[in-house]
Specification:
The protein is of the alpha/beta class. About 40% of the residues lie in helices and about 10% in strands. The chain has a twelve-stranded parallel β-sheet with strand order 1-2-3-4-5-6-7-8-9-10-11-12, with no helix packed on it.
Length: about 300
């Protein structure tokens, strides 16, 4: 077999036979039901593959028992760069097992754990691994159950970790205490460039803390605050920000009176290139104000205003 990419479209046994071939570097088993017998076949096959760089197990019904078997195979792997375990049934117990791999692994750069059942305990274990890992650049923890204690542990890891560039925390359950920890951590972190905090029902105090991040941080280039209620502190902070290129403020209940503060900041901001304001409460008044502002702004190339009242 000369192809380096294999997409599962035969029976599972044949799939595992093919994985054993050293020419296979990418395996996509997403949306394939995997039970204990199948995970045993898969992990056995993985032990014989010395070139695998990408493994996608999204939506495969993998649970903690499966993770225990998978980690045994991954312990001897020295090539895997991308691992997708999203949309499964992994809890803190499975994450504790998986983090042992992160400590030992020196190749993994992409890890997607979104849409599982990870709580603060699992996040703390993951955070301890991040303190020792120096290769992971992308971590997706969207749609889990991480609270302030978990974010505190993650923030502590960010003060030490020097490889992570993308962190996704969409739809968890942390608030101002967690944001305060993130604020402190980002002051000491110089590698994180993309942060997703959307859908966490962040309070007014949390928004003030995020505004502080925008005023003082010079490494973040992408920030997603969608599905939160934005206040003017965030919009005014953009005036002092010198690094952000992409900002997502969709579904944040922005009105015409907020656009006044945003427009004023855009006159002085010289880094923002992409701004998402879709699904808000902006009318023709706010739209006109934004259009007039763009006469003075020379960096914005894309504004999304879909699904407003204009």
């Amino acid at each position: 077999m000369s192809s380096s990419i294999f997409k599962f479209d035969l029976n599972f046994y044949i799939c595992c036979k093919l994985i054993k071939q050293s020419t296979v570097t990418s395996v996509d088993l997403s949306f394939t039901y995997i039970d204990t017998n199948k995970i045993i076949l898969l992990t056995e096959a993985l032990k014989y593959n010395y070139n695998l760089t990408s493994l996608n197990l999204c939506s495969t019904c993998i649970n903690d028992i499966h993770i225990e078997l998978l980690t045994i195979a991954l312990q001897i792997n020295s090539t895997l760069i991308s691992l997708n375990l999203s949309h499964n049934f992994i809890t803190d117990k499975g994450i504790v097992l998986l983090t042992n791999i992160l400590i030992l692994n020196s190749t993994l750069a992409y890890l997607n754990l979104s849409n599982n059942s990870i709580n603060d305990i699992g996040t703390k274990s993951l955070s301890n691994a991040l303190k020792q890992n120096s290769t992971l650049t992308y971590l997706n923890l969207n749609h889990n159950n991480i609270g302030d204690n978990g974010i505190n542990a993650l923030s502590n890891a960010l003060t030490i970790n020097s490889s992570l560039t993308t962190l996704k925390l969409y739809f968890n359950r942390f608030n101002s205490a967690g944001i305060q920890s993130l604020n402190n951590a980002i002051k000491h972190n110089s590698t994180l460039t993309s942060l997703n905090l959307s859908g966490n029902s962040l309070t007014t105090n949390s928004m003030k803390l995020i505004a502080d991040i925008l005023k003082n941080n010079s490494t973040l280039t992408s920030l997603n605050l969608s599905y939160n209620e934005i206040n003017n502190e965030i919009l005014k902070a953009l005036q002092l920000n010198t690094s952000l290129n992409k900002l997502n403020l969709s579904y944040t209940k922005i009105r015409d009176d907020n656009i006044i503060f945003l427009s004023n900041s855009l006159i002085f901001n010289h880094t923002l290139t992409s701004l998402n304001l879709s699904h808000n409460n902006i009318t023709c008044i706010g739209y006109k104000l934004l259009i007039d502002t763009l006469k003075y702004n020379t960096t914005i190339t894309h504004i999304n205003l879909q699904y407003n009242y204009i």
